[in-house]
DNA sequence: TTGGGTGCAAAATGTTTGCAATTCG
DNA sequence: CGAATTGCAAACATTTTGCACCCAA
């Protein structure tokens, strides 16, 4: 599924700007901020505005094609929704994020989910220190 | 431990404003925004500015007395660090948050934590629908 | 007394909105 | 062509910063 198809399937018109945004998200290994998209695309041939990026991300989020996340307690980040959901290890030393290849909660019976509260999703981030920063940290 | 002692232990001067902020956090059952603190204290006898609140929360966060959280993908919230850490059920219907009384991950061996990445903390939020909203939602 | 703290204003940052001009279908 | 989309400016909300005055230690 390429950018063009993704946009079509959302019922959105395929514009130069939107294609570039979706392509950028497809290439991104990590959640990215609106500003990162803006800077990256501005450096290429693509000229577009931040408001367009926000609007597009908003629309794609509504269609569940993009997910808004908030990693590292800072800005909003956005990532393409791929297989299921995704969690990250976040290094407190260098801020790098490492995607986990599976959900640690998968298949787990959560004590909180009972008839009084129906759990439909979760968000999990693991913090710590990567190999390099473990050394530097001491 | 009261507000006064908490501030002292952080090496911060005990001022009227800071005391009020910490007391408010102690009474709060849930993470609160800077603005909520501002409005609540303004209504009482306490006069103080938002910048003072942000500065104080910043300092308390640095001392690990307060934790910054971002629930519901919206604004920054702050909560007093009590016993260990805390997780919430968040209702997507009414936005209400319900504190869990224990950490579902407690005692769990996380597959990601090995010698290459040392896990020191995590953040987990569970989303779903509370009893009332399960009915309304359909 | 004095260095940290606060009031206050102003700036910086991130995001949203309104509208005319443009472009996709 | 007509509706959706964009460029652009301006508004908005949140958070940070600078500085003179103030007050806790």
TrEMBL record, chains A, B:
<dbReference type="InterPro" id="IPR036390">
    <property type="entry name" value="WH_DNA-bd_sf"/>
</dbReference>
<dbReference type="GO" id="GO:0003700">
    <property type="term" value="F:DNA-binding transcription factor activity"/>
</dbReference>
<dbReference type="GO" id="GO:1900376">
    <property type="term" value="P:regulation of secondary metabolite biosynthetic process"/>
</dbReference>
<keyword id="KW-0862">Zinc</keyword>
<feature type="binding site">
    <location>
        <position position="94"/>
    </location>
    <ligand>
        <name>Zn(2+)</name>
    </ligand>
</feature>
<feature type="binding site">
    <location>
        <position position="91"/>
    </location>
    <ligand>
        <name>Zn(2+)</name>
    </ligand>
</feature>
<keyword id="KW-0479">Metal-binding</keyword>
<keyword id="KW-0678">Repressor</keyword>
<keyword id="KW-0238">DNA-binding</keyword>
<feature type="binding site">
    <location>
        <position position="133"/>
    </location>
    <ligand>
        <name>Zn(2+)</name>
    </ligand>
</feature>
<keyword id="KW-0408">Iron</keyword>
<feature type="binding site">
    <location>
        <position position="85"/>
    </location>
    <ligand>
        <name>Fe cation</name>
    </ligand>
</feature>
<feature type="binding site">
    <location>
        <position position="122"/>
    </location>
    <ligand>
        <name>Fe cation</name>
    </ligand>
</feature>
<dbReference type="InterPro" id="IPR002481">
    <property type="entry name" value="FUR"/>
</dbReference>
<dbReference type="GO" id="GO:0008270">
    <property type="term" value="F:zinc ion binding"/>
</dbReference>
<dbReference type="Pfam" id="PF01475">
    <property type="entry name" value="FUR"/>
</dbReference>
<dbReference type="GO" id="GO:0045892">
    <property type="term" value="P:negative regulation of DNA-templated transcription"/>
</dbReference>
<protein>
    <submittedName>
        <fullName>Transcriptional repressor</fullName>
    </submittedName>
</protein>
<keyword id="KW-0804">Transcription</keyword>
<dbReference type="InterPro" id="IPR043135">
    <property type="entry name" value="Fur_C"/>
</dbReference>
<feature type="binding site">
    <location>
        <position position="130"/>
    </location>
    <ligand>
        <name>Zn(2+)</name>
    </ligand>
</feature>
<dbReference type="GO" id="GO:0000976">
    <property type="term" value="F:transcription cis-regulatory region binding"/>
</dbReference>
<keyword id="KW-0805">Transcription regulation</keyword>
<comment type="similarity">
    <text>Belongs to the Fur family.</text>
</comment>
<dbReference type="InterPro" id="IPR036388">
    <property type="entry name" value="WH-like_DNA-bd_sf"/>
</dbReference>
């Amino acid at each position: 599924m390429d950018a063009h198809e993704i946009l079509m399937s959302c019922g959105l018109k395929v514009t130069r700007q939107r294609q570039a945004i979706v392509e950028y998200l497809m290439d991104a290994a990590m959640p990215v901020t609106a500003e990162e998209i803006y800077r990256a695309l501005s450096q290429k041939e693509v000229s577009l505005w931040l408001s367009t990026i926000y609007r597009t991300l908003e629309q794609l989020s509504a269609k569940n094609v993009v997910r808004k996340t908030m990693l590292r307690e800072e800005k909003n980040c956005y990532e393409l929704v791929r297989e299921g959901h995704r969690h990250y290890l976040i290094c407190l030393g260098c801020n790098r994020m490492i995607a986990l290849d599976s959900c640690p909660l998968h298949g787990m019976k959560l004590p909180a989910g009972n008839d009084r509260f129906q759990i439909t999703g979760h968000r999990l981030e693991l913090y710590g220190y990567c190999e390099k920063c473990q050394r530097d940290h001491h």
